[in-house]
Amino acid sequence: MPILIHLTSKKLISQKEINELKKRIEKALKYLKLFHKEISLVFTDNKHIKKLNTQYLGRPYPTNVLAFPFAKESPLISNILGEIIISVEKAKEESKIYEIDFKNYLLALVTHGLFHLLDYDHERGWFSPFLMLKNELNLLNKIAFKKDKKKLINFLKRREYMPAKLAVNVDHVATVREARRTCYPDPVHAAVLAELGGADGIVVHLRLDRRHIKERDVRIIKEIIKTKLILEMAIDDYLIKFAKEIKPYQVTLVPERVEEITTEGGMNLERRVEEVKKAVKELNEAGIKVSLFLNPDEKAIKLAKKTGAQIIEIHTGMYAEAETDEKREEELNKIEISARLAKDLGFIVHAGHGLNYENIGPVAAIPQIEEFSIGHSIVSRALFVGIKDAVREMKELILRARG
């Protein structure tokens, strides 16, 4: 038998629940191609699992799941993966708190333990948590019970994430060029160096007044970079047509006023949902993902759901410009709440505006934010250390915040 189940008390869980769970775990082993492997599954209470935590891990408190791989201790017993121990008492407590179906939550704990038996570790390194979670989600999408399945998946997505990515905005290299109306410095060169420094994407804002980035810059950068091009722009017929021709990886729709120095805030979607929805649809049909640049505001994010956009970029300007610790904390809290809401609504969450080497840490620690768009502070730092090192330093700060 591939699954050996032991109960420390018959009061913990019903035989019907055990049978249903066992079928799902057997499916899991098949999906993972572990056809000849066995696992031991122990259902216990908080008192027993606390004792095990204290004895083996030095943690004098109950946890929801423990996993002990046998292969490390007895490599010759190759058909036995190990033992998963679950506190059913703890699982019931947590499933009520998180308002998730108990059976599905229990199955998620077993799945988590199973990947630990396969030597995955969410407490090791920068990328290990992401890899482990990705595999858990893939498996649960196939084997989870229907009740609260979507809620469970969204809950797990909030748990741990891959280190956030950094998209570097090279607009201000073009700003320096335009100050003298010359052909240098070239934002194309900056884009290449930013990639060499570790940038995960390049951002350019093709403004209506063409004050810095030109069509020529967008075309060449799209052809030459190896990562992804993100094109920021206002909703405009010509710009939409241009985007469909260039086909960047992503278009970020932003509000724009000719007299502003830089983008002053997020889009106001009130009475504009249909207009934005039309633009999103047209860009999506051309194979382009669409992001909306929004203030950290619950109402705006809920309206964004009606537009069909795939991504939300949270405007961090108010946080970056806060003059007191109290105000900064208040704005950070808004960003955090908005990021959770956006993730729960199914958006990919990005953030940007005004972020620099001093203030990036607290925002980069928010697990729901998958990517940061940063330009001015990196270009400013590059005046002293060069583009590659400026990008490398910023990315290191982001990684540390998650690591």
From TrEMBL:
Subcellular location: Cytoplasm
Main subcellular location of this protein, as a coarse class: cytoplasm
Pathway listed: Cofactor biosynthesis; pyridoxine 5'-phosphate biosynthesis; pyridoxine 5'-phosphate from D-erythrose 4-phosphate: step 5/5
Active-site feature positions: 205 (proton acceptor), 232 (proton acceptor), 353 (proton donor)
GO biological process: proteolysis; pyridoxine biosynthetic process; rRNA processing
Top-level taxon: Bacteria
GO cellular component: cytosol
Keyword Protease: yes
GO molecular function list: metalloendopeptidase activity; pyridoxine 5'-phosphate synthase activity; RNA endonuclease activity; zinc ion binding
Residues given in the record as 3-amino-2-oxopropyl phosphate binding sites: 169, 180, 354, 375-376
Family matches, as CDD domains: PNPsynthase (cd00003)
EC number of this enzyme: 2.6.99.2, 3.1.-.-
Keywords: Cytoplasm, Endonuclease, Hydrolase, Metal-binding, Metalloprotease, Nuclease, Protease, Pyridoxine biosynthesis, Ribosome biogenesis, rRNA processing, Transferase, Zinc
Catalytic activity: 3-amino-2-oxopropyl phosphate + 1-deoxy-D-xylulose 5-phosphate = pyridoxine 5'-phosphate + phosphate + 2 H2O + H(+)
Annotated site location: Transition state stabilizer: 313
Free-text remark on how the cofactor is bound: Binds 1 zinc ion.
Cofactor: Zn(2+)
Residues where Zn(2+) binds: 112, 116, 122
Annotated 1-deoxy-D-xylulose 5-phosphate binding sites: 171-172, 207, 212, 262
Xref: InterPro entries: Aldolase_TIM (IPR013785), MetalPrtase_cat_dom_sf_prd (IPR023091), PyrdxlP_synth_PdxJ (IPR004569), Pyridoxine-5'_phos_synth (IPR036130), YbeY (IPR002036)
Assembly description: Homooctamer; tetramer of dimers.
PANTHER family documented for this protein: PYRIDOXINE 5'-PHOSPHATE SYNTHASE
Function in brief: Catalyzes the complicated ring closure reaction between the two acyclic compounds 1-deoxy-D-xylulose-5-phosphate (DXP) and 3-amino-2-oxopropyl phosphate (1-amino-acetone-3-phosphate or AAP) to form pyridoxine 5'-phosphate (PNP) and inorganic phosphate. Single strand-specific metallo-endoribonuclease involved in late-stage 70S ribosome quality control and in maturation of the 3' terminus of the 16S rRNA.
Family label: Belongs to the PNP synthase family.
Protein name: Multifunctional fusion protein
Source species: Thermodesulfobacterium geofontis (strain OPF15)
